[in-house]
């Protein structure tokens, strides 16, 4: 599989009143036509990583080091002009709150048309035609009428469909999805997930899907990277991660989700709270909460151990499997 | 959690009047409509937020309410707490009607609520200790005793009072704030605690901690919970009985296992089928229903679900089906398909009751 996205040694630090080491030494790659899930709790750095891929973080207060390569282009070296043609055409993003992400003073049709005109140099009329086509692709009923609707005139699920239409209007190779179904009702969430799954296949896109919900990841991802305190602690195929997690945090996270837990039985929890990230981690960030912590966990940063083919965990207990 | 000395006095509980057999809370025909201001010449419209909702909560029980946004579950909670007046219906707390044999002040001691937004529901200018002690002081407890109680309760919810008592809400994490909210709710020694999406905003690992805590507190203080959530996994885990609401109405209720294993209403079935899979090899293939929940302004006539229901027949649009017993274990559903002899082609044949 060719690598569409290749991130290596990525560090993101926010400065200002206080310093936050949001992402630390992150390595990640995305293959062609692959759906990669970034799974983690709030503050684990998953959205920050996604935003760094599109350089959406505030310039003044962010320090980014490392390499971010998207389809052979160095994203961190792009100037503003290169960035603006890169965004929307090569990489596109959908957000958690479509009501905030869409422009409230333009109709849906105008917003999609604008993006087509800007990126593909087409006329406005052609842009409108593409907009109509896209609204049909995302299955918005009576699409023609919806072209002239403003975002506030639509329901939550419909707005999310419109945002997907906008993001895919210029046929990007990579779609970044930042918790796109979290704000939706259960019966609508599953519709949007299935729609994304279908469009991903139809368009042959690669997707990075950020979520905190393992159930959602199971529905859509091929591969999963579990994040904790700004680092990827484990990555591998969805099946491997769900069935046999290696890192104690991944294990705990899976155990504490309440799929079919018996009533009255105690839930397994991870004690304590995540670290503040006020300084760069120099040892295992999870050690203070880990049941299996040993003195050597606190001595240095655990190496990223290759546990199997395409599978790695950042834990001293992870043993590389020997091919038998 | 260690048993500490018992020098701390709690407020006395509102007396148990009716004994075990009497439901702690009885709700009959609860209704709340909000008028919507339209244009100058537009017809008057109303949001039927809660429409003729009846249920009861037994002592020591946990009742869950599930439904999507706009189904009226939070409005129901607010009506129960008398945070807003209801248009119609009775709320009977342990055999006593509020406003008649029970004052609002007493009701608030017997019933407390924890809200979803842990930050917005705490006064940012009070320390955590002051926030928890506030209620008991209003109810006549001396300042020193109330503060001692607050510290005791902080310990009970797993926050060390020496570390947390003097902090402000913005200085602690979401999970910790929700623990503070729970402690504050317990400060008046309530018998019923309404938890309105109390764990929904928390991360998964923290959510599990708080759910364990709720189970511990229930045992220790002999509490009864009304647990409102959109997360079906959590509701199944914590509830004994469950109410499923759709557009302001209860469409199905019963013991949680009965409802989960044999859902009688197509909406309940759709809700359950919409849960993301937990098995990578058995992903969901088809969405159970299409479209968004309709706007609760002027909901459709007849059965409110008929516009999204795959089994809708003409009779469904004509009149609303009533909650009807599905079995003998208290499982009821409001669907013509569950009512024998209703005239729906899928209704169970047999003698009409």
C-alpha end-to-end distance of chain B: 53 Å
The radius of gyration over CA of chain B amounts to 22 Å
Which H/E pattern describes the elements of chain A? EEEHEEHEHHHHHEHEHEEHHHEE
Helical amount of chain B: 25-40%
Based on secondary structure, the structural category of chain A is alpha/beta
Q: Reading side by side through the largest sheet of chain A, how are the strands ordered?
A: 6-7-8-3-9-10-12-11
Stretches with pLDDT under 50, minimum 5 residues of chain B: 1-5
Secondary structure tally: strands of chain B: 12
CATH superfamily of the largest domain in chain B: P-loop containing nucleotide triphosphate hydrolases
Tell me about the biggest sheet of chain B? 8 strands, mixed
Number of helices of chain B: 11
* Mean pLDDT across all amino acids of chain A: 90
N-to-C series of helices and strands of chain B:
EEEHEEHEHHHHEHEHEEHHHEE
CATH topology of the largest domain in chain B: Rossmann fold
What is the SS-derived class of chain B? alpha/beta
Binned strand content of chain A: 15-25%
Largest interface: A-B, 43 and 49 residues
What is the number of strand segments of chain A? Answer: 12
Q: Any idea what the CATH architecture of the largest domain in chain B is?
A: 3-Layer(aba) Sandwich
In terms of per-residue confidence, which ranges of chain A show pLDDT below 50 for 5 or more consecutive residues? none
Domain ABC transporter (chain B): 25-272
Main location (chain B): membrane
Subunit structure (chain B): The complex is composed of two ATP-binding proteins (GsiA), two transmembrane proteins (GsiC and GsiD) and a solute-binding protein (GsiB).
Catalytic activity (chain B): glutathione(out) + ATP + H2O = glutathione(in) + ADP + phosphate + H(+)
Keywords:
heterodimer, A: alpha/beta, eight-stranded mixed beta sheet, B: 353 residues, alpha/beta, Rossmann fold, 2 domains, four-stranded antiparallel beta sheet, 20% strand, ATP binding (chain B), Oligopep_ABC_C (chain B)
């Amino acid at each position: 599989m060719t690598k569409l996205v290749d991130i290596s040694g990525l560090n993101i630090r926010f400065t200002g009143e206080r310093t936050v080491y949001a992402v630390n030494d992150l390595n990640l790659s995305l293959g062609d036509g692959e759906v990669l899930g970034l799974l983690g709790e709030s503050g684990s750095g998953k959205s920050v990583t996604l935003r760094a891929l599109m350089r959406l973080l505030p310039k003044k207060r962010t320090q980014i080091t490392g390499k971010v390569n998207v389809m052979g282009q160095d994203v961190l070296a792009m100037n503003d002009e290169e960035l603006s043609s890169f965004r929307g055409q090569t990489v596109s993003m959908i957000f958690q709150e479509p009501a905030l992400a869409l422009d409230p003073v333009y109709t849906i049709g105008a917003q999609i048309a604008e993006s087509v005109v800007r990126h593909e140099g087409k006329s406005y009329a052609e842009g409108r035609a593409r907009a109509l086509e896209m609204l049909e692709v995302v299955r918005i009923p009576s699409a023609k009428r919806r072209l002239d609707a403003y975002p506030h005139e639509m329901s939550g699920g419909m707005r999310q469909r419109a945002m997907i239409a906008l993001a895919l209007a210029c046929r990007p190779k990579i779609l970044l999805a930042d918790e796109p179904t979290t704000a939706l009702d259960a019966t609508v969430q599953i519709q949007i997930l299935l729609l994304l799954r279908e469009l991903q296949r139809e368009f042959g896109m690669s997707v990075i899907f950020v979520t905190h919900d393992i159930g959602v990841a199971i529905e859509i991802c091929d591969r999963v990277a579990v994040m904790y305190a700004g680092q990827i602690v484990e990555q591998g195929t969805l099946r491997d991660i769900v069935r046999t997690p290696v890192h104690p945090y991944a294990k705990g996270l899976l155990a504490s989700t309440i799929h079919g837990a018996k009533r009255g039985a105690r839930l397994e929890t991870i004690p304590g709270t995540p670290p503040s990230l006020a300084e760069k981690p120099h040892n295992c960030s999870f050690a203070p909460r880990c049941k299996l912590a040993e003195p050597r966990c606190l001595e240095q940063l655990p190496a990223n151990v290759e546990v199997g083919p395409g599978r790695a965990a950042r834990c001293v207990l992870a043993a590389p499997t020997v091919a038998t | 959690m260690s048993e500490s000395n018992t020098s701390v006095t709690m407020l006395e509980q509102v007396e148990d009047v009716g004994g075990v057999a009497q439901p702690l809370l009885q709700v009959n025909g609860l209704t709340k409509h909000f008028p919507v201001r339209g244009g100058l010449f537009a017809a008057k419209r109303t949001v039927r937020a809660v429409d003729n909702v009846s249920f009861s909560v037994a002592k020591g029980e946990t009742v869950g309410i599930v439904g999507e946004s706009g189904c009226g579950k939070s409005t129901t909670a607010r009506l129960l707490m008398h945070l807003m007046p209801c248009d119609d219906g009775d709320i009977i707390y342990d055999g006593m009607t509020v406003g008649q044999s029970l004052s609002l002040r007493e009701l608030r001691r017997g019933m407390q609520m924890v809200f979803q937004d842990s930050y917005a529901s705490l006064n940012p200018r009070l320390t955590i200790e002051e926030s928890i002690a506030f209620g008991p002081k209003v109810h006549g407890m001396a300042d020193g005793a109330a503060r001692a109680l607050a510290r005791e309760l902080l310990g009970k919810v797993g926050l060390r009072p020496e570390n947390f008592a003097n902090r402000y809400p913005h200085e602690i994490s979401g999970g910790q704030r929700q623990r503070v909210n729970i402690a504050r709710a317990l400060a008046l020694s309530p018998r019923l605690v309404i938890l309105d999406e109390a764990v929904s905003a928390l991360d998964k690992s923290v959510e599990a901690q708080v759910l364990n805590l709720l189970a511990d507190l229930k045992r220790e203080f002999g509490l009864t919970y009304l647990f409102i959530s959109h997360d079906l996994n959590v509701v199944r885990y914590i509830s004994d009985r469950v109410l499923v609401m759709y557009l302001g109405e209860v469409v199905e209720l019963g013991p949680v296992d009965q409802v989960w294993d044999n859902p009688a209403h197509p909406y309940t079935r759709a809700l359950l089928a919409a849960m993301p899979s937990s098995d990578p090899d058995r992903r969901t293939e088809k969405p159970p229903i299409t479209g968004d929940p309709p706007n609760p302004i002027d909901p459709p006539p007849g059965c409110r679900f008929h516009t999204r229901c795959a089994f809708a027949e003409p009779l469904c649009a004509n009149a609303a089906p009533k909650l009807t017993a599905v079995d003998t274990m208290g499982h009821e559903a409001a669907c013509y398909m569950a009512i024998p002899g209703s005239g729906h082609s899928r209704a169970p044949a047999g003698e009409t009751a």
